[in-house]
Design brief:
Largest sheet: none
Order of helices and strands: HHHHHHHHHHHHHHHHHHHHH
Helix content: over 70%
Shape: globular
Length: 432
Protein backbone atom coordinates (compact mmCIF):
# COMPACT_ATOMS: atom_id res chain seq x y z
CA UNK A 1 0.00 0.00 0.00
CA UNK A 2 2.73 2.49 0.97
CA UNK A 3 4.71 1.67 -2.18
CA UNK A 4 1.63 2.51 -4.25
CA UNK A 5 1.28 5.84 -2.45
CA UNK A 6 4.92 6.66 -3.17
CA UNK A 7 4.38 5.92 -6.86
CA UNK A 8 1.40 8.29 -7.03
CA UNK A 9 3.52 11.42 -7.06
CA UNK A 10 3.28 14.44 -4.81
CA UNK A 11 0.36 16.10 -6.61
CA UNK A 12 -1.89 13.04 -6.58
CA UNK A 13 -0.97 12.26 -2.99
CA UNK A 14 -1.80 15.79 -1.84
CA UNK A 15 -5.10 15.68 -3.74
CA UNK A 16 -5.93 12.30 -2.22
CA UNK A 17 -5.31 13.64 1.29
CA UNK A 18 -7.26 16.86 0.69
CA UNK A 19 -10.29 15.20 -0.89
CA UNK A 20 -10.32 12.43 1.72
CA UNK A 21 -10.27 15.03 4.50
CA UNK A 22 -12.96 17.06 2.74
CA UNK A 23 -15.22 14.03 2.32
CA UNK A 24 -14.73 13.01 5.95
CA UNK A 25 -15.63 16.49 7.19
CA UNK A 26 -18.65 16.76 4.89
CA UNK A 27 -20.03 13.45 6.17
CA UNK A 28 -19.19 14.41 9.77
CA UNK A 29 -21.09 17.69 9.40
CA UNK A 30 -24.03 15.88 7.78
CA UNK A 31 -24.11 13.36 10.63
CA UNK A 32 -24.23 16.24 13.13
CA UNK A 33 -26.90 18.08 11.13
CA UNK A 34 -29.31 15.19 10.49
CA UNK A 35 -32.74 16.78 10.33
CA UNK A 36 -36.24 15.99 9.13
CA UNK A 37 -36.60 17.73 5.74
CA UNK A 38 -39.79 19.61 4.94
CA UNK A 39 -41.42 21.69 2.21
CA UNK A 40 -39.90 21.06 -1.26
CA UNK A 41 -36.86 19.15 0.02
CA UNK A 42 -39.11 17.01 2.18
CA UNK A 43 -41.47 16.25 -0.70
CA UNK A 44 -38.58 14.97 -2.82
CA UNK A 45 -37.06 13.04 0.10
CA UNK A 46 -40.22 11.21 1.17
CA UNK A 47 -41.33 10.72 -2.42
CA UNK A 48 -38.01 9.02 -3.18
CA UNK A 49 -38.25 6.88 -0.03
CA UNK A 50 -41.72 5.78 -1.08
CA UNK A 51 -40.64 4.90 -4.62
CA UNK A 52 -37.59 2.99 -3.37
CA UNK A 53 -39.29 1.00 -0.62
CA UNK A 54 -42.84 0.41 -1.91
CA UNK A 55 -42.72 1.30 -5.59
CA UNK A 56 -45.45 3.88 -4.97
CA UNK A 57 -45.23 7.67 -5.02
CA UNK A 58 -46.86 8.87 -1.78
CA UNK A 59 -47.32 12.51 -2.85
CA UNK A 60 -48.14 12.66 -6.60
CA UNK A 61 -50.09 15.91 -6.13
CA UNK A 62 -46.89 17.77 -5.31
CA UNK A 63 -45.09 16.53 -8.44
CA UNK A 64 -48.12 17.32 -10.58
CA UNK A 65 -47.71 20.94 -9.50
CA UNK A 66 -43.90 21.18 -9.44
CA UNK A 67 -42.53 19.28 -12.42
CA UNK A 68 -39.07 20.80 -11.94
CA UNK A 69 -38.54 18.50 -8.93
CA UNK A 70 -39.19 15.28 -10.83
CA UNK A 71 -35.63 14.72 -12.06
CA UNK A 72 -34.05 14.67 -8.61
CA UNK A 73 -36.88 12.48 -7.30
CA UNK A 74 -36.17 9.78 -9.90
CA UNK A 75 -32.40 10.10 -9.59
CA UNK A 76 -32.17 9.88 -5.81
CA UNK A 77 -34.83 7.16 -5.51
CA UNK A 78 -32.55 4.87 -7.55
CA UNK A 79 -29.81 5.31 -4.93
CA UNK A 80 -32.33 4.84 -2.12
CA UNK A 81 -33.41 1.56 -3.69
CA UNK A 82 -29.82 0.30 -3.75
CA UNK A 83 -28.86 1.80 -0.39
CA UNK A 84 -31.79 0.31 1.54
CA UNK A 85 -30.09 -3.09 1.40
CA UNK A 86 -27.26 -1.67 3.51
CA UNK A 87 -28.92 0.95 5.73
CA UNK A 88 -32.28 2.54 6.44
CA UNK A 89 -30.70 5.94 7.04
CA UNK A 90 -31.90 7.50 3.79
CA UNK A 91 -30.70 10.94 4.86
CA UNK A 92 -27.08 9.77 4.90
CA UNK A 93 -27.53 7.90 1.60
CA UNK A 94 -28.74 11.16 0.11
CA UNK A 95 -25.82 13.08 1.63
CA UNK A 96 -23.36 10.46 0.39
CA UNK A 97 -24.59 10.88 -3.20
CA UNK A 98 -24.44 14.69 -2.97
CA UNK A 99 -20.96 14.53 -1.43
CA UNK A 100 -19.68 12.49 -4.38
CA UNK A 101 -21.31 14.82 -6.91
CA UNK A 102 -20.03 18.01 -5.28
CA UNK A 103 -16.49 16.69 -4.93
CA UNK A 104 -16.49 15.57 -8.56
CA UNK A 105 -17.37 19.17 -9.37
CA UNK A 106 -14.50 20.45 -7.23
CA UNK A 107 -12.03 18.12 -8.95
CA UNK A 108 -13.37 19.21 -12.36
CA UNK A 109 -12.69 22.81 -11.30
CA UNK A 110 -9.13 21.95 -10.23
CA UNK A 111 -8.46 19.97 -13.41
CA UNK A 112 -9.83 22.72 -15.69
CA UNK A 113 -7.71 25.45 -14.08
CA UNK A 114 -4.64 23.21 -14.14
CA UNK A 115 -5.19 22.45 -17.83
CA UNK A 116 -5.96 26.01 -18.94
CA UNK A 117 -3.48 27.80 -16.67
CA UNK A 118 -1.14 25.98 -14.30
CA UNK A 119 -0.94 23.70 -11.29
CA UNK A 120 -0.04 26.52 -8.88
CA UNK A 121 -3.20 28.48 -9.67
CA UNK A 122 -5.28 25.31 -9.44
CA UNK A 123 -4.03 24.72 -5.89
CA UNK A 124 -4.69 28.37 -4.97
CA UNK A 125 -8.33 28.07 -6.04
CA UNK A 126 -8.69 24.67 -4.38
CA UNK A 127 -7.41 26.21 -1.14
CA UNK A 128 -9.86 29.11 -1.40
CA UNK A 129 -12.75 26.69 -1.90
CA UNK A 130 -11.67 24.67 1.14
CA UNK A 131 -11.49 27.87 3.21
CA UNK A 132 -15.13 28.64 2.40
CA UNK A 133 -17.22 26.96 5.16
CA UNK A 134 -20.25 26.13 3.02
CA UNK A 135 -18.30 23.54 1.03
CA UNK A 136 -18.61 21.34 4.12
CA UNK A 137 -22.33 22.08 4.51
CA UNK A 138 -23.53 21.92 0.89
CA UNK A 139 -24.00 18.09 0.91
CA UNK A 140 -26.31 18.43 3.94
CA UNK A 141 -28.60 20.72 1.94
CA UNK A 142 -30.50 17.84 0.39
CA UNK A 143 -32.15 19.69 -2.45
CA UNK A 144 -31.79 20.49 -6.14
CA UNK A 145 -29.32 23.33 -5.59
CA UNK A 146 -26.63 21.10 -4.09
CA UNK A 147 -27.47 18.18 -6.40
CA UNK A 148 -26.80 20.32 -9.49
CA UNK A 149 -23.63 22.07 -8.26
CA UNK A 150 -21.19 19.86 -10.16
CA UNK A 151 -22.92 19.91 -13.55
CA UNK A 152 -21.98 23.37 -14.93
CA UNK A 153 -18.27 23.05 -14.15
CA UNK A 154 -18.08 19.40 -15.28
CA UNK A 155 -19.81 20.35 -18.55
CA UNK A 156 -17.36 23.22 -19.04
CA UNK A 157 -14.42 20.88 -18.41
CA UNK A 158 -15.75 18.46 -21.01
CA UNK A 159 -16.35 21.31 -23.47
CA UNK A 160 -12.70 22.36 -23.33
CA UNK A 161 -11.60 18.76 -23.71
CA UNK A 162 -13.75 18.46 -26.85
CA UNK A 163 -12.17 21.60 -28.31
CA UNK A 164 -8.65 20.22 -27.93
CA UNK A 165 -9.28 16.52 -28.60
CA UNK A 166 -7.99 15.34 -32.00
CA UNK A 167 -9.47 11.82 -31.97
CA UNK A 168 -13.01 11.76 -33.37
CA UNK A 169 -14.19 8.77 -31.31
CA UNK A 170 -12.98 10.39 -28.11
CA UNK A 171 -14.82 13.63 -29.04
CA UNK A 172 -18.05 11.68 -29.55
CA UNK A 173 -17.68 10.07 -26.13
CA UNK A 174 -16.95 13.42 -24.49
CA UNK A 175 -19.93 14.99 -26.27
CA UNK A 176 -22.22 12.22 -24.99
CA UNK A 177 -20.89 12.69 -21.45
CA UNK A 178 -21.43 16.44 -21.72
CA UNK A 179 -24.99 15.92 -22.90
CA UNK A 180 -25.71 13.55 -20.01
CA UNK A 181 -24.15 15.98 -17.53
CA UNK A 182 -26.13 19.02 -18.67
CA UNK A 183 -29.40 17.11 -19.10
CA UNK A 184 -29.13 15.53 -15.66
CA UNK A 185 -28.31 18.90 -14.12
CA UNK A 186 -31.17 20.57 -15.98
CA UNK A 187 -33.66 18.06 -14.61
CA UNK A 188 -32.48 19.09 -11.13
CA UNK A 189 -32.21 22.82 -11.86
CA UNK A 190 -33.14 24.23 -15.30
CA UNK A 191 -30.50 27.00 -15.04
CA UNK A 192 -27.81 24.37 -15.73
CA UNK A 193 -29.00 24.34 -19.36
CA UNK A 194 -27.93 27.97 -19.71
CA UNK A 195 -24.34 26.69 -19.91
CA UNK A 196 -25.18 24.71 -23.06
CA UNK A 197 -26.91 27.74 -24.60
CA UNK A 198 -23.79 29.83 -23.98
CA UNK A 199 -21.57 27.14 -25.53
CA UNK A 200 -23.74 27.00 -28.66
CA UNK A 201 -23.99 30.79 -29.02
CA UNK A 202 -20.28 31.45 -28.61
CA UNK A 203 -19.31 28.56 -30.91
CA UNK A 204 -21.53 30.11 -33.59
CA UNK A 205 -20.32 33.69 -33.02
CA UNK A 206 -16.65 32.71 -33.16
CA UNK A 207 -17.23 30.24 -36.01
CA UNK A 208 -15.70 27.28 -34.26
CA UNK A 209 -14.50 24.34 -36.32
CA UNK A 210 -17.13 22.01 -37.73
CA UNK A 211 -16.18 19.27 -35.30
CA UNK A 212 -17.33 21.50 -32.40
CA UNK A 213 -20.73 21.90 -34.04
CA UNK A 214 -21.00 18.14 -34.47
CA UNK A 215 -20.11 17.59 -30.82
CA UNK A 216 -22.69 20.14 -29.70
CA UNK A 217 -25.31 18.47 -31.90
CA UNK A 218 -24.51 15.11 -30.32
CA UNK A 219 -24.73 16.63 -26.83
CA UNK A 220 -27.99 18.35 -27.74
CA UNK A 221 -29.48 15.09 -29.04
CA UNK A 222 -28.47 13.25 -25.85
CA UNK A 223 -29.99 16.03 -23.76
CA UNK A 224 -33.24 15.88 -25.72
CA UNK A 225 -33.54 12.10 -25.24
CA UNK A 226 -32.87 12.28 -21.49
CA UNK A 227 -35.22 15.21 -20.89
CA UNK A 228 -37.92 13.51 -22.96
CA UNK A 229 -37.47 10.29 -20.97
CA UNK A 230 -37.93 12.14 -17.68
CA UNK A 231 -41.01 13.92 -19.04
CA UNK A 232 -42.57 10.66 -20.26
CA UNK A 233 -41.91 8.95 -16.92
CA UNK A 234 -43.63 11.81 -15.07
CA UNK A 235 -46.66 11.71 -17.37
CA UNK A 236 -46.81 7.94 -16.90
CA UNK A 237 -46.87 8.10 -13.11
CA UNK A 238 -49.08 11.15 -12.63
CA UNK A 239 -52.63 11.07 -13.96
CA UNK A 240 -54.26 13.69 -16.17
CA UNK A 241 -56.74 14.38 -13.37
CA UNK A 242 -53.93 15.37 -11.01
CA UNK A 243 -52.34 17.59 -13.65
CA UNK A 244 -55.68 19.29 -14.22
CA UNK A 245 -56.19 19.84 -10.50
CA UNK A 246 -52.66 20.81 -9.44
CA UNK A 247 -50.30 21.72 -12.31
CA UNK A 248 -48.97 25.27 -12.05
CA UNK A 249 -48.56 27.32 -15.26
CA UNK A 250 -44.90 27.84 -16.15
CA UNK A 251 -45.18 31.65 -16.00
CA UNK A 252 -46.32 31.56 -12.36
CA UNK A 253 -42.67 31.90 -11.23
CA UNK A 254 -42.25 34.95 -13.44
CA UNK A 255 -45.20 36.55 -11.66
CA UNK A 256 -43.67 35.66 -8.29
CA UNK A 257 -40.46 37.30 -9.47
CA UNK A 258 -42.32 40.60 -9.96
CA UNK A 259 -43.51 40.71 -6.37
CA UNK A 260 -41.47 42.75 -3.92
CA UNK A 261 -42.94 41.29 -0.74
CA UNK A 262 -40.27 39.77 1.48
CA UNK A 263 -37.33 40.89 -0.64
CA UNK A 264 -36.07 43.58 1.72
CA UNK A 265 -37.07 42.27 5.15
CA UNK A 266 -35.98 38.72 4.38
CA UNK A 267 -32.64 39.46 2.72
CA UNK A 268 -30.91 38.09 5.83
CA UNK A 269 -32.54 34.73 5.20
CA UNK A 270 -31.57 34.85 1.55
CA UNK A 271 -35.14 34.06 0.62
CA UNK A 272 -38.55 35.70 0.38
CA UNK A 273 -41.98 35.35 1.95
CA UNK A 274 -44.06 35.33 -1.22
CA UNK A 275 -46.51 32.44 -1.04
CA UNK A 276 -48.36 33.50 -4.14
CA UNK A 277 -48.43 29.96 -5.49
CA UNK A 278 -50.56 28.92 -2.50
CA UNK A 279 -53.40 31.00 -3.94
CA UNK A 280 -53.50 28.85 -7.04
CA UNK A 281 -53.84 25.70 -4.96
CA UNK A 282 -57.42 26.67 -4.18
CA UNK A 283 -58.39 26.98 -7.84
CA UNK A 284 -59.96 23.84 -9.26
CA UNK A 285 -58.85 23.79 -12.91
CA UNK A 286 -55.76 24.59 -14.92
CA UNK A 287 -57.72 27.18 -16.94
CA UNK A 288 -58.74 29.02 -13.75
CA UNK A 289 -55.16 29.10 -12.53
CA UNK A 290 -53.85 30.39 -15.84
CA UNK A 291 -56.52 33.10 -16.00
CA UNK A 292 -55.82 34.23 -12.44
CA UNK A 293 -52.05 34.33 -12.94
CA UNK A 294 -52.41 36.28 -16.20
CA UNK A 295 -54.57 38.88 -14.47
CA UNK A 296 -52.01 39.12 -11.66
CA UNK A 297 -49.20 39.50 -14.21
CA UNK A 298 -50.98 42.39 -15.93
CA UNK A 299 -51.64 44.06 -12.58
CA UNK A 300 -48.00 43.84 -11.51
CA UNK A 301 -46.75 45.13 -14.86
CA UNK A 302 -49.18 48.03 -14.60
CA UNK A 303 -47.85 48.90 -11.14
CA UNK A 304 -44.30 49.36 -12.46
CA UNK A 305 -44.75 52.82 -13.97
CA UNK A 306 -41.17 54.09 -14.10
CA UNK A 307 -37.66 52.80 -14.67
CA UNK A 308 -37.05 53.55 -10.99
CA UNK A 309 -39.73 51.01 -10.01
CA UNK A 310 -38.00 48.34 -12.06
CA UNK A 311 -34.54 49.31 -10.80
CA UNK A 312 -35.71 49.08 -7.19
CA UNK A 313 -37.17 45.61 -7.76
CA UNK A 314 -34.12 44.27 -9.59
CA UNK A 315 -31.73 45.82 -7.07
CA UNK A 316 -33.53 44.14 -4.17
CA UNK A 317 -33.44 40.80 -5.99
CA UNK A 318 -29.69 41.06 -6.59
CA UNK A 319 -29.10 41.86 -2.92
CA UNK A 320 -31.05 38.76 -1.86
CA UNK A 321 -28.76 36.60 -4.01
CA UNK A 322 -25.59 37.51 -2.12
CA UNK A 323 -26.49 39.51 0.98
CA UNK A 324 -25.30 37.16 3.71
CA UNK A 325 -22.61 35.45 1.69
CA UNK A 326 -23.44 31.82 2.55
CA UNK A 327 -26.13 30.74 0.06
CA UNK A 328 -28.64 30.57 2.93
CA UNK A 329 -28.35 27.11 4.52
CA UNK A 330 -31.47 27.92 6.54
CA UNK A 331 -33.52 27.81 3.33
CA UNK A 332 -33.08 24.03 3.21
CA UNK A 333 -31.71 22.81 6.54
CA UNK A 334 -34.51 22.62 9.10
CA UNK A 335 -33.67 24.16 12.48
CA UNK A 336 -35.73 24.04 15.67
CA UNK A 337 -35.47 25.37 19.22
CA UNK A 338 -34.62 21.85 20.38
CA UNK A 339 -31.50 21.48 18.23
CA UNK A 340 -28.25 20.75 20.04
CA UNK A 341 -24.57 20.51 19.18
CA UNK A 342 -23.53 21.71 15.75
CA UNK A 343 -27.16 22.17 14.70
CA UNK A 344 -27.70 24.63 17.54
CA UNK A 345 -24.42 26.42 16.82
CA UNK A 346 -25.28 26.91 13.15
CA UNK A 347 -28.84 27.93 13.98
CA UNK A 348 -27.71 30.50 16.56
CA UNK A 349 -24.64 31.86 14.77
CA UNK A 350 -25.60 32.02 11.08
CA UNK A 351 -26.62 35.66 11.54
CA UNK A 352 -23.70 36.61 13.81
CA UNK A 353 -21.16 39.23 12.72
CA UNK A 354 -18.09 36.88 12.62
CA UNK A 355 -19.99 34.22 10.64
CA UNK A 356 -21.43 36.66 8.11
CA UNK A 357 -18.24 38.71 7.82
CA UNK A 358 -16.04 35.66 7.15
CA UNK A 359 -18.40 34.37 4.46
CA UNK A 360 -18.74 37.80 2.89
CA UNK A 361 -15.00 38.44 2.71
CA UNK A 362 -14.41 35.21 0.78
CA UNK A 363 -17.51 35.23 -1.41
CA UNK A 364 -17.48 38.94 -2.25
CA UNK A 365 -13.79 38.72 -3.16
CA UNK A 366 -14.48 35.78 -5.46
CA UNK A 367 -17.49 37.56 -6.99
CA UNK A 368 -15.44 40.68 -7.68
CA UNK A 369 -12.68 38.66 -9.33
CA UNK A 370 -15.28 36.72 -11.34
CA UNK A 371 -16.92 39.91 -12.59
CA UNK A 372 -13.66 41.49 -13.78
CA UNK A 373 -12.35 38.32 -15.45
CA UNK A 374 -13.44 39.61 -18.87
CA UNK A 375 -10.66 42.22 -18.71
CA UNK A 376 -7.82 39.69 -18.51
CA UNK A 377 -6.04 37.51 -21.02
CA UNK A 378 -7.47 34.03 -20.96
CA UNK A 379 -10.98 35.34 -20.39
CA UNK A 380 -13.76 32.85 -20.96
CA UNK A 381 -16.66 34.37 -22.87
CA UNK A 382 -18.67 31.13 -22.74
CA UNK A 383 -18.66 31.05 -18.97
CA UNK A 384 -19.16 34.80 -18.58
CA UNK A 385 -22.15 34.65 -20.93
CA UNK A 386 -23.60 31.67 -19.05
CA UNK A 387 -23.23 33.48 -15.73
CA UNK A 388 -24.84 36.60 -17.20
CA UNK A 389 -27.71 34.39 -18.36
CA UNK A 390 -28.16 32.98 -14.87
CA UNK A 391 -28.24 36.45 -13.31
CA UNK A 392 -30.65 37.62 -16.01
CA UNK A 393 -32.93 34.66 -15.31
CA UNK A 394 -33.16 35.19 -11.56
CA UNK A 395 -33.19 38.99 -11.50
CA UNK A 396 -35.52 39.59 -14.46
CA UNK A 397 -37.53 36.41 -15.04
CA UNK A 398 -38.00 34.41 -11.84
CA UNK A 399 -38.45 34.44 -8.10
CA UNK A 400 -35.13 34.65 -6.32
CA UNK A 401 -33.44 33.00 -3.36
CA UNK A 402 -29.80 32.98 -2.28
CA UNK A 403 -29.55 29.19 -2.45
CA UNK A 404 -30.58 29.18 -6.13
CA UNK A 405 -27.23 30.50 -7.28
CA UNK A 406 -25.21 27.81 -5.50
CA UNK A 407 -25.18 25.52 -8.54
CA UNK A 408 -22.87 28.05 -10.23
CA UNK A 409 -20.63 28.14 -7.14
CA UNK A 410 -17.67 26.48 -8.89
CA UNK A 411 -18.13 28.72 -11.93
CA UNK A 412 -17.51 31.79 -9.79
CA UNK A 413 -14.22 30.30 -8.61
CA UNK A 414 -13.21 29.39 -12.16
CA UNK A 415 -13.78 32.94 -13.37
CA UNK A 416 -11.92 34.25 -10.33
CA UNK A 417 -8.97 32.06 -11.37
CA UNK A 418 -8.83 33.91 -14.69
CA UNK A 419 -8.49 37.24 -12.87
CA UNK A 420 -5.92 35.89 -10.43
CA UNK A 421 -3.89 34.57 -13.37
CA UNK A 422 -4.09 37.98 -15.03
CA UNK A 423 -2.94 39.75 -11.86
CA UNK A 424 -0.10 37.27 -11.38
CA UNK A 425 1.04 37.82 -14.96
CA UNK A 426 0.91 41.58 -14.53
CA UNK A 427 3.32 41.38 -11.58
CA UNK A 428 5.44 38.64 -13.12
CA UNK A 429 4.40 35.99 -10.58
CA UNK A 430 2.89 33.53 -13.05
CA UNK A 431 4.67 30.33 -14.05
CA UNK A 432 6.42 30.54 -17.37
Amino acid sequence: MFSRLRRMGKEKLVLLILFSALTFLQLLVASALQYVPNFDAGSIFYGAVGLATTGELPNPEYFAMFGNQWGLLVFISAFFWIGQFFTQNFFMIYVGVLTILINIGLYALYDLIKTRFNKCLAFIILTLVLLYPQIYIFPSKIYTDSASMAMPIVALNLFYRIRTEERSKKRVLLAILMGITIALGATFKPTVAIMFVAMAMLSWIYQERARIYKSLLISGAVMAVILLAFSISRNHVISDELFERHQAPWFQWFVMGLKEEGLEENRWDGTRTSHFYNVTLNLETRAEREAFIRSELLRLLDEKETLGDWARLFGKKYIVLHYRGDFAPGCTIVFSEYDSGFQAWLRDNRFSVPYVLYHRVILYSILFLAYISIFFKGRDWVTSLALFGVYFFFIFLSEVSSRQLSNYFFIFFYLAAISIDGIMRKFGWSES
